[in-house]
């Protein structure tokens, strides 16, 4: 399979830029508060919430909603072990595809 065809085989749930950003950010920490994650990713509240719902339904993140001092809502998000594996595998596959493309370029396209 050509590396360009492999790109089409990537996990679309993880590959979507906003979700990849969320998963990559969460993989670098234990957990993140919603507003911090929003600031980090640059997503709107609604957009972040929508992507988190998709990731949570897939079992890639866990979302915990609770109240601080019984009045202030706080939402924390953490990546699950499945989510960590998915994002690590995704970046690994992207690097492998990139390496194949670079090798083909070095071979002047002679390898097929």
Account of the protein in words:
There is one protein chain. The protein is α+β, with helices and mostly antiparallel strands and 112 residues long. It has one domain (3-105): Arc Repressor Mutant, subunit A (Orthogonal Bundle), CATH 1.10.10. It has 6 helices and 3 strands. It has helices spanning 3-8, 12-15, 17-27, 34-41, 45-57, 81-106; strands at residues 32-33, 61-68, 72-79. A 3-stranded antiparallel beta sheet has the order 1-3-2. A hairpin with a 3-residue loop joins strand 2 and strand 3. The longest helix has 26 residues, at 81-106. It is elongated. The relative contact order is 0.17.
Alpha-beta classification: alpha+beta
Strand and helix order: HHHEHHEEH
What is the overall pLDDT average? 92
* Share of residues in strands: 15-25%
Shape call: elongated
Low-confidence stretches: none
Per DSSP, the total helix count is: 6
Q: If you compute it from the alpha carbons, what radius of gyration comes out, rounded to the nearest whole angstrom?
A: 18 Å
CATH hierarchy, class: Mainly Alpha
Instruction: Tell me the CATH superfamily.
Output: Winged helix-like DNA-binding domain superfamily/Winged helix DNA-binding domain
Quick one: biggest sheet?
Answer: 3 strands, antiparallel
Q: Which helices and strands, and how do they pair?
A:
Elements: H1 3-8, H2 12-15, H3 17-27, E1 32-33, H4 34-41, H5 45-57, E2 61-68, E3 72-79, H6 81-106
Antiparallel strand pairs: 1-3, 2-3
